[in-house]
């Protein structure tokens, strides 16, 4: 609308009109969006079909085999993007669990996600998935595909804050493993488990710095390592074959000796997806690796910084335990998550791109 001075005036819409879609056909999905250290989390709130299965792991298999089109709808463009991450709350078979969760990304479904657990802790309290919040912390038991993770959410005067969680048993699978990369030659890596398996290597091996090098160069190096480890190293997990796969590679700044200064890393996982946060399950695995090498002691807290955004988590080994024959530790990871919005997505039947696409 033009004013008499020839300037354009803003059109004021009613709040009711702003929040409603015009008449349309197609299924709707409602989500709550959050981020932890810059890494997104899209929590599916409603509109998802029933997920069948008698365990969280069997539900993970079910969505992969029968509902994967909805992962693409919510993670891919035009509703998401290449590095979108999601969580679907499901029922757990464990009586002590407050909720179960399935994680999703650009490639499929992971077994553990620390940044998502931190966000889900807040979400569970705020959306009343736990009955009676307690101050100063409310415990939320989250059943992830890798096992039960206990989160503790700061709670005061009706408001949630920071979150810490206790990991499943984390362990070092192998150290000083040599793999052959076509472009970079032989590279020595460590492999550790923090709810998911990661390969660890100092970025300086590739002439890179996790905080200053181009993201594309870091992704190329990490992806080359991931592909080599997947083809040359056979992984196994003592409790389930569903957990025995390499989730990604974490490039580090090499500062593994204990220090009060932050140590930086960048995680490249799934289909070359870049984690904006320090990576909660990666911090878990890296603490387990440092403890295995005798570089840290129980209850020594380290600060881990994202090479991508500078955001920080803290991590510390709090208890020795076992996972099958592996010597393991329980790791406590702490961070903050924030809400970014809520959305209702529609799938109009005449939209030929409704099922999503990715630009690589």
Automatic annotation (TrEMBL):
Q: Which InterPro entries match?
A: Pro_racemase_fam (IPR008794)
Q: Which UniProt keywords apply?
A: Lyase
E.C. number:
4.2.1.77
Question: Catalysed reaction per UniProt?
Answer: trans-3-hydroxy-L-proline = 1-pyrroline-2-carboxylate + H2O
Q: Which Pfam families match?
A: Pro_racemase (PF05544)
Q: Name one GO molecular function term.
A: trans-L-3-hydroxyproline dehydratase activity
Q: Does the keyword Transcription apply?
A: no
Q: How does it assemble?
A: Homodimer.
Family that this chain belongs to: Belongs to the proline racemase family.
Spell out the protein name for this chain. Answer: trans-L-3-hydroxyproline dehydratase
Q: What is the lineage of its organism?
A: Eukaryota, Metazoa, Chordata, Craniata, Vertebrata
């Amino acid at each position: 609308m033009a004013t008499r001075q020839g300037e354009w005036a803003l059109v004021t819409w009613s709040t009711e009109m702003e929040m409603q879609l015009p008449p349309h056909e197609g299924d709707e999905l409602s989500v709550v969006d959050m981020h932890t250290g810059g890494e997104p989390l899209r929590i599916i709130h409603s509109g998802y079909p029933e997920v069948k299965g008698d365990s969280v792991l069997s539900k993970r298999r079910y969505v992969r085999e029968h509902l994967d089109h909805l992962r693409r709808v919510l993670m891919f463009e035009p509703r998401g993007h290449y590095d979108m991450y999601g969580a679907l709350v499901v029922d757990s078979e464990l009586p002590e669990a407050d909720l179960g969760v399935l994680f999703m990304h650009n490639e499929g479904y992971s077994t553990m996600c620390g940044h998502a657990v931190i966000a889900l802790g807040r979400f569970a309290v705020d959306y009343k998935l736990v009955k009676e919040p307690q101050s100063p912390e409310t415990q939320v038991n989250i059943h992830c595909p890798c096992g039960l993770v206990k989160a503790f959410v700061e709670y005061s005067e009706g408001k949630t804050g920071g979150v810490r969680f206790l990991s499943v048993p984390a362990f070092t699978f192998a150290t000083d493993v040599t793999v052959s990369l076509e472009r970079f030659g032989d590279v020595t890596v460590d492999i550790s488990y923090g709810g998911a398996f990661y390969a660890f290597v100092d970025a300086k091996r590739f002439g890179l710095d996790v905080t200053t090098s181009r993201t594309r160069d870091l992704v190329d190096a990490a992806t080359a390592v991931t592909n080599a480890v997947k083809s040359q190293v056979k992984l196994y997990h003592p409790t389930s074959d569903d957990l025995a796969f390499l989730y990604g590679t974490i490039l580090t700044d090499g500062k593994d000796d204990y220090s009060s200064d932050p140590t930086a890393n960048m995680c490249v996982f799934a289909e070359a997806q870049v984690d904006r946060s320090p990576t909660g399950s990666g911090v878990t695995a890296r603490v387990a690796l440092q403890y295995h090498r005798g570089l840290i002691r129980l209850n020594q807290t380290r600060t881990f910084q994202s090479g991508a955004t500078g955001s920080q988590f803290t991590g510390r080994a709090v208890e020795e335990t076992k996972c099958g024959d592996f010597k393991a530790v329980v790791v406590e990871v702490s961070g903050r998550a924030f809400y970014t919005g809520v959305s209702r997505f529609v799938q109009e039947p005449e939209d030929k791109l409704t099922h999503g696409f990715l630009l690589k």
